[in-house]
Structures are given as C-alpha cells and as structure tokens.
Amino acid sequence: MRMKLSASVLGLVIGAFAGSAAAQEKLAVRLDWTPWGAHAAIHLAAEKGWFKQNGIEATVEDGNGSVTTVQLVGSGRFDVGHASLAPMMIARDKGLPVRAIANFARKNDIGLLVPRGGALKGPRDLAGKKIIFTAGSLEAPFLDTFLAAGGVKRGQVELLNVEAAAKVPTYAAARADGVFSTVPFVVPAVEASRPSDAILFSDYGLQFPSFGLVSSEDKIKERGAAIRRFASVVSGAWEYILKGGEDEAVKAIIAQRPQAKLNPQVLRAQIESLKAFFVTPAAQGLPMGVMADADWVAGIKTMSSVNLIKNAPSATFYTNDMLDRALIQKIGGK
Question: What is the pLDDT of residues 257-283, one digit of tens each?
Fold first, then answer.
C-alpha cells in the first residue's frame, strides 16, 4: 500500500512539473539598444528565474534604437519592446497600433552634456559653441525651443550632426563643446574620459515619458495575460533593484550578456543615474511601471508643440491594465 501511495504521489509530482513546463508561454522581447543600465530589471528577472516562475519563457534580443524597436513591435515581429516612449507616441500618431504598457523613466532623460565645472550652464551660454547632435534622433525637433529658452537662435550655434553610435566617442574625444543625448546613458559612459554635467530638457519645459515597455494592440488582445505577467515582473524587478539590488542587477546584466565585455562600474553608474528619472510629481507613490495620466498630458503638450504628434486624448497612448500591482509588490519585496 505504501509503495502504491508513493507511486501515486510521484505521479502527481511529475505531472505537476510537466504541467508547469507546458504552461510556459514564449514571449519575444526587443530591447532599445545594446546592453546598458536601463535593461537591469529585465536581465535580473531572467537571471533570478522570475519570468519562468510566472509562466513566461522570454527571449530577449538587443536593439539598435527605440524607433526600430517600436516599428518591429508594431509590425508584430515582437510581443514586447523596451524603448523610449516618445517614438512610440509618434508612431501611434501616424497609425502604428502600439501602446505603452509600463513606464519606468517617467521624466524626460534627454539633455545637453557639457564638461563638468565649465562655463556652460544653460542654453543662454551656447552661442558660438560647437554642439553634437543626431538629425534623426529625438532631440532634434526640440533644439530650437531649447535654445530659445536662453535667447539663442540655431544659427548662433555650430551644430555637428553625427550618427547616434558616434556621439559618445566624438564628445569624449573633446571634438565639441557639448552633446545632446540620453543623459543616464552618456554621463557614466564618459566619466573616465570627460566628466560631464547635464542640462536637462525637462528643466526648460520639455517633458515627456522616457523608457518603458510597449506592445501592439493585437498582441495585447492575443497574449494579454502573458504580457501582463511580463510587464509586472519587470516592474517588480525594478522595485527590487531600488531596494538595494543594484549590484545584483549589474551582475545579472553581465551574466546575461557575457560576450559584450561590459564595464560593471559604468553599468552601476547608469543605474544610479536613471534613478533621478523614475519619479515625477504626478507619479509620487505609484508602483514602478504604473503611469500617471498627468505625465502623458504633459508629454502630448510638449510633442504637439513642435508638431511631432497631433493633440489627442492621453488614454490613446497608454494603458495600466497590463500591470498587476500585487505581482509587482511580490517581486519587488523579495
């Protein structure tokens, strides 16, 4: 009788494991760029097995720009994308059926990087200076507005147009007086070669949501439950990191991308730099990932002011329905 009972129990255990394996739902995820600190939560969740524990088999692919990631997600090539949300807004305005499902860097992280301790403190100081930018990047449409805040016109500044991948090495080599770019990515990357301060666009009224997760309307309808678990796990992983898991997150990025030969000090500094962009006044007290409508209203106002998008209801661009607050808390509290 005892042997029969043991066999029955064994059968139940095997069945449970088989059911768990069968329940794993595959998700294709596209990142915005090559590995950097903004990917910490995704890689940490993978490394700690949190995706698998919640029925997700996530295949995570590096990217080559947020615009491309948004387009690939919108075309159905990927289930979820990690990207700057402003390109998502532009794409949706033009008819691509994409929507933000989580927002981590809620404050605009674009700005002007200038040598630390130098004379450049704001747009008013840029007349006669050489500044690096990329014509196809998100900063370009806002340059006139940013410069005008200091009473400077575009013709008074020497703008050096370079490819996005060339921004950091060109600036680090001191071939220009400043560079427009993503602040938490570039400041740590040039710390050793050219320590820099940042003059933020958001300090001059140019505010819109930055990095988060996007999906398409079709994928949300077809695979909403799995996408909701994924977004919630990633949001919870960020909560975990912010409670002292930064070094663990750095190790996870390196473990997930061993071929990239990443600098742990730069990754750690990028995570620290990102913290300044996670919370806006409207998002105070909200779990990581959850979006405040006021932030989207502000973003629409900013982007429509330079004709990047048409004025539209904020709910057009995002949904909080793909976030399970209980799961965020569960992961974040570990």
Answer: 999 999 999 999 999 999 999 999 999
Nearest to 130 by CA among 117, 151, 145, 115: 115
For residue 244, being part of any structural domain is answered with: yes
Same structural domain for residues 298 and 158? no
pLDDT over 50 (residue 156): yes
Q: Which two tokens stand for residue 182?
A: 């993503």
Could you tell me the pTM of the whole model?
0.91
> Is 87 in the same domain as 214?
yes
* Predicted local distance difference test score (pLDDT) of residue 27: 98
Mean pLDDT of all residues belonging to the chain? 93
Is the separation of the CB atoms in 72 and 81 below 8 Å?
A: yes
Flag whether 1 is in a domain. no
Q: Residue 17's pLDDT is what?
A: 39
Say yes or no: 192 and 118 in one domain. Answer: yes
Residue 33 counted as domain residue: yes
- In the predicted model, is pLDDT for residue 306 greater than 60? yes
Let me know whether 59 and 147 are in one domain: no
My answer on whether 95 and 236 are in the same domain is yes
Q: Which of 204, 238, 259 corresponds to the end of one domain? A: 204
Are 95 and 219 found together in one domain?
yes
Q: Which residues constitute the domain of residue 309?
A: 22-107+209-332
Cβ-contact 82, 213 below 8 angstroms = yes
